[in-house]
Amino acid sequence: MTLSLSLEKRLEPTPWVPLLPALSVALALPAGGVVLAIAGTNPWEAYKEMALGAFGSLYGLSETVVKAIPLLLAGLGVALAFRMLFWNIGAEGQLHLGALGATWVALNAPDLPAPLLQPLMILAAFFAGAAWGLIPATLKVYAGLNEIITTLMMNYIAILWMDFLVYGPWKDPHGFGFPFTAPFPPAARLLKLPGSRIHLGLALGLAAAGLLAVLLWRTRVGYEIRIIGLNPRAARYAGMNIPKVTLLVLALSGGLAGLAGLSEVAGIQGRLKHGLSPGYGYTAIIVAWLARLNPWAVVGVSVLLGGLLVGGDMLQIAMGLPVTMTYILQGLILFFVLGMEVLSGYRLILRRRGSSRAKT
Amino acid sequence: MKGKWLATVIAGLLALGLGVTARSQEPMKVGFVYVGPVGDYGWTYAHDQGRKSLEKALPGVKTTYVESVAEGADAERVITELARTGHKVIFTTSYGYMDTTIKVAEQFSNVVFLHCSGYKRRENVGTYFGRMYQASYLSGLVAGKMTRKNLIGYVAPIPIPEVIRITNAFALGARETNPQVKVHVVWTNAWYDPATETEAANGLLDIGADVIATQSDSPAPVQAAEKRGAYGVGYNSDASKFAPKGHLVSAVWDWGPYYVETIKAVKAGTWKSEDVWWPIGTGIVGLAPYGPAVPSSVKTLVEKRKEDLIQGRFDVFWGPIKDQSGKIRIARGQKATDEELLQMNWFVEGIVGTIPK
To answer: Could you tell me the domains of chain B?
Structure first.
């Protein structure tokens, strides 16, 4: 007699859905603990150092928030597009365009006072990101091109375009040939929370989360976005203008990622330089999924993921572990989260198959 | 963390009460920030070997390293974290940490920061590098002698003056032993990206190169050359074990002596912010042992040239040196100044490839 496991599609999602991400983290920690123990480290100590590093001091907490800001902004953009089943893998490129827009303003109007300059930079970043998002949206709506391919490929174009500018026309003339622009004027640096690196981008992100929640659940177009996401065919029968909604959503989605670029370049780095983003646009996809595409949950998830990345430093600094250990722990958590995702739509069935097989 | 602070304060008060003798027994904490993994067998590996020899040489020193730290926003957090956790000297070992190092140093005036390969300093920030172009030139001499097709493929990471200068030095060496030679440069646009480095090397082999040299952080291009029966010239660390047959020579770093000397100076209170740019005679740069394919006549020639460099009878960037368009950039009898070397943004004659402008 053998037991067999199989997956059966649920007719309705389980009521446990909101708890699944927490459950998956709860499972990932002991699994990571086994790996830590094999590496000869006390797992309890390691987790404690990680948690203390990310959340145990004002400094750690502020750095976690700093790390969360670009994830939050880009994650919101990705979540919105995914809501209507538009697979926008292009947040990374839209983020770079946003940084380009903001930098263009900062370099060309350095004498404007901050209250004028910064809104201009924010607008430029938003519209540049939106324009980059509209290209694949247009290609999809009018030419039926697969957006997964186009958004992904446009990331490389955006990054190379930025490299072209920082190696070429925008290169700091006093930079010894290094690939970065001149430093931004002080008026172009986003307002900071004193004593930390937390900047105005956080306010932008929180406001965007609130606005998205209102848009999705309190407006007609939000209703259409949700219906298109649930059942595009039904939406079409109901007479919804899917092309129009697609273009609007991608403008917003790209614009939000563009703001993430602005926040990095004007909030943190103070100049545009080669290697702007360590893949925030891709991590944003994970953020959006973990948050189950809910704007408020995106806020929480970005902070948690930011904490995971910041806390990972402490494994190296305090525990002397290699960086690969951080990657393993982060990977395990994501592995369990995505595994749990399956359980929200399917259930595990345990069957005894031994007896029936014996008969045949 | 609050509890920890309190504990530290109490411990501090106790130590004061019990006499300060315990303080000098405490190890000095030294931090290292790496741009790649310590297992890259190239740039970061060389720095980590230096860190290890520092620990061995000075028993009162305890080192910490953080690897694969991206050059953007993450670097500031990591460097700050090291300064906050009691590291008295912090080495930041990639050019992209330059602004960040200065910024963090402004907040920690009692910590000494040393930034590798940059040009910005302040009273608690020094810069350091070695004249790697000298060793690269020597490895170029070998490559020029060994190519049969007069085509050397060169995998280069990021188009900044440091990389351009070292590439030029290699090409000058290769063309000194073989004036027919062309050095074909391909950029990977990353310090550490073994997959792209391998692709670049294969592309160069496809167009007929029979020697592959690299300046990237990993030995992947040398490995790719070995696989296809070509010669390889390594960089950063000895690449011989990745190409037992085809490895000709590697231009390598030895950071250990610099790290030891610097920490000694900080301990003695004699350290001052300065720009350290040690030449080949100090051993900070040099050549790894030659591969089996290199005949002894070539070795003799290279060793003689090395001796010339050490004695100052000759230097790599001595005119006349022409650029790609044939224009004289360094006149006959002139030697490029350090200023010119630090800002070099043109390729010498014989290099095929462009610098993004």
So the answer is: 25-131+255-282 (3.40.50.2300), 132-251+284-352 (3.40.50.2300)
Contact A316 B37 (CB under 8 A): no
Q: What is the DSSP string of A142-206?
A: HH---HHHHHHHHHHHHHHHHHHHHHTTT--TTTTT-SBPPPPPGGGSPPB-TTSS-BTHHHHHH
pLDDT in tens, A29-55: 899 999 999 988 899 999 999 999 999
Beta bridge partners of B61: B28
DSSP A17: G
Q: Does residue A150 sit within a domain?
A: yes
Range of the domain at A291: 80-297
Residues B72, A264: C-beta atoms closer than 8 Å? yes
∠ at Cα B275 (B272, B277), nearest 5°?
130
Specify if A242 maps to a domain.
yes
Tens-digit pLDDT profile for chain B (357 aa)? Answer: 444 555 554 444 444 444 444 445 689 999 999 999 999 999 999 999 999 999 999 999 999 999 999 887 889 999 999 999 999 999 999 998 999 999 999 999 999 999 999 889 999 999 999 999 999 999 999 999 999 999 999 999 998 899 999 999 999 999 999 999 999 999 998 889 999 999 999 999 999 999 999 999 999 999 999 999 999 999 999 999 999 999 999 999 999 999 999 999 999 999 999 999 999 999 999 999 999 999 999 999 999 999 999 999 999 999 999 999 999 999 999 999 999 998 899 999 999 999 987
A181 found inside a domain = yes
Interface residue B96 vs chain A (CB under 8 A): yes
Q: Is residue A135, in this structure, part of any structural domain at all?
A: yes
Q: Are strands B285-287 and B247-253 parallel, antiparallel or unpaired?
A: antiparallel
Q: Do the Cβ atoms of B92 and B79 come closer than 8 Å?
A: yes
Number of domains in chain A: 1
CA distance B161 to B163: 5
**Residues 6+ positions from A257 with CB-CB distance below 8 Å:** A73, A74, A77, A78, A90, A91, A92, A94, A95, A98, A129, A133, A281, A284
Rounded to the nearest angstrom, the minimum Cα separation between B143 and chain A is: 28
Peptide bond into A43 cis (omega under 30): no
Does any CB of chain B come closer than 8 Å to the CB of residue A223? no
Residues 149-188 of B with CB under 8 A from A: 158-161, 164
